[in-house]
Automatic annotation (TrEMBL):
One of its GO terms (molecular function) is L-glutamate gamma-semialdehyde dehydrogenase activity. It comes from the Bacteria. One of its GO terms (biological process) is L-proline catabolic process to L-glutamate. It comes from Salmonella enterica I. Residues 159-197 are annotated as: Disordered. Keywords: NAD, Oxidoreductase. The keyword NAD applies. InterPro entries: Ald_DH/histidinol_DH, Ald_DH_C, Ald_DH_N, Proline_metab_enzyme. GO terms for cellular component: cytoplasmic side of plasma membrane. This is Trifunctional transcriptional regulator/proline dehydrogenase/pyrroline-5-carboxylate dehydrogenase.
Length: 197
């Protein structure tokens, strides 16, 4: 069991099988794809898969689906709490910016990265599904409000990013919380090629 825990805790793969047949997958029970060589995007067969195939959907459809599933099966949100720490810091920092603080709270309510969900499965199997953040995100901002909005979006998943300042005031990158500045460095648009994305 120690070896299994060590491997599963350190592997960054789209699918991880322990003592299970690796051929084929049952939709909604054994999702596949979604990371690394498995591709990016929705996990095929996962609870959010169908919604990615629709042209339109109600704004709260994803949360409704996940809430319904969470009422039936256990959820592990320990990693989610850790991933939300930068967004929590930004929310506190934005005490004198009510619009940004409201946006941060909305992002926190919608955030799913780091939540591990147990899926229904055949007897003897334990299938879990977890959303993980992308490693790097490029942010392009024309003004300070855009920059802070994008910083909040990046923070909700504890991603690292590079903010390319196109027409921002010279010191705009310095107004963000010190804790987040290191994770989202600011560079001029002429130097965007040097951004770590």
């Amino acid at each position: 069991m120690k070896t299994i825990a060590q491997v599963t805790g350190s592997a960054h793969v789209g699918n991880l099988y322990v003592n299970r047949n690796m051929v084929g997958a049952v939709v909604g029970v054994q999702p596949f794809g979604g990371e690394g060589l498995s591709g990016t995007g929705p996990k095929a067969g996962g609870p959010l898969y169908l919604y990615r195939l629709l042209a339109h959907r109600p704004p709260n459809a994803l949360n409704t689906t996940l809430t319904r599933q969470d009422a039936r099966y256990p959820v592990d949100a320990q990693l989610k709490t850790t991933l939300l720490a930068p967004l929590t810091a930004l929310t506190q920092w934005a005490a004198d910016r009510p619009a940004l603080q409201t946006l941060c709270r909305q992002f926190a309510d919608l955030a799913q990265a780091g939540t591990q969900r147990l899926l229904p499965g055949p007897t003897g199997e334990r299938n879990t599904w977890t959303l993980l953040p992308r490693e790097r995100v490029l942010c392009l901002a024309d003004d300070e409000q855009d920059a802070l909005t994008q910083l909040a979006a990046v923070s909700r998943r504890r991603q690292s990013g590079a903010m390319v300042r196109r027409r921002l005031p010279p010191r705009s990158g310095e107004t963000s919380p010190r804790r987040r500045r290191g994770a989202c460095p600011v560079c001029e648009s002429g130097n965007a090629d040097g951004a770590a994305v």
